[in-house]
Fold P-loop containing nucleoside triphosphate hydrolases superfamily protein.
Amino acid sequence: MAARDSLIQTIGKSVKAVAKSRGSEWWYTTHMAAAARAIEERVPLVDLILEVRDARIPLSSEFLQLRKFPSANRIIVLNKADLAHRSETKEWLRCFEEQKCMAFGVNSHNRDNIREFLTFLKARVRELKRKNDHADAITLMLVGIPNVGKSALANSLHQVGRISAAEKGRLKHSVVTPQPGETKSISSLKIASHPNIYALDTPSVMPPDVIDDEVCSKLALTGAIKDSVVGEIKLAEYFLSILNMAEEYKKWRKLSSSETGAVLTGDATSSLGKKQKRQYPTDHTQDFIVNNVRGTLFDLVSSFAGHMQDGEDPARLIHEEFEVLQKVFHLLPLEVKESNYSRVATKLLNLYRTGRLGHYTLDHVPSNAQGIPPLI
């Protein structure tokens, strides 16, 4: 815990230092301020607000601007549910329900899940229509902080909704990139017919004030803050500190070198002697590389003789993991060790953020409701 706390403080200070040195042109940019005003003006005019959060950080990814408004017509959407721990997502949904706030967990890249979410939204729309029969169209507005997947969700709703309605015509698209804060303007996408339902995709907005160290760290690790602000090595160390204390690595026992008898290499030969299809050691996203990473991490963590809770031992384990992963990723030795560490960090973060190294929820449901800020 001491090693993780130290990393959290380091990351938090890095974010605050950059935010302070660059002022409003970095953390709370001029386009964010303009977007915040535009969103605030539209909140009273739309029928439903979809507050999109990252399912890995259901509390830390809150869109704080909405606290100014009643939550009666708000739905909290926990996007990227495929990257979070499933049982903890269920706990968060139950927690929001206990606070009388509608919530739904979704994976914007899963069509079946999107259809299920659309059915849920249409049921809410029917309730609104009963209250206002004169409404010809229903408008939803998606809001959220950077990189929670608003645009990806809007595009999926638009595509699946249009196909379900058998509508012809050119599909619109919101811009989707892995970089946070790329949406610059509000766009409208039709997601259903009979009644017509439109979704407004809005720019991402950070809170005006820099938040505490732990929230900063979680936002940085999940990609809401650009990696360059903190540095990929520190972020990868933070991820490994989480992995080393979690239970996910225990699922990789069968990938351990002691279990398989050998480690897969780029020579395309397995431990059973079966010929594999051509493999490329430099591509860290290939299954055999990912399995090597998993098995290696299992071996290192499960055999570690130090104390994981305190002292310098956790930092020593993370150092060992970086050293060994250079070989697993087939990185050639470089004169400057930090350069290889940076390459390891880049690959690790990519595998974590795409769910290849397990499912982690960084915000845990408090033991009592008082730990959750009131939503109404």
Remarks:
- The beta strands are 48-54, 74-79, 102-105, 137-143, 187-192, 196-201.
- The CA atoms of residues 320 and 370 lie 40 Å apart.
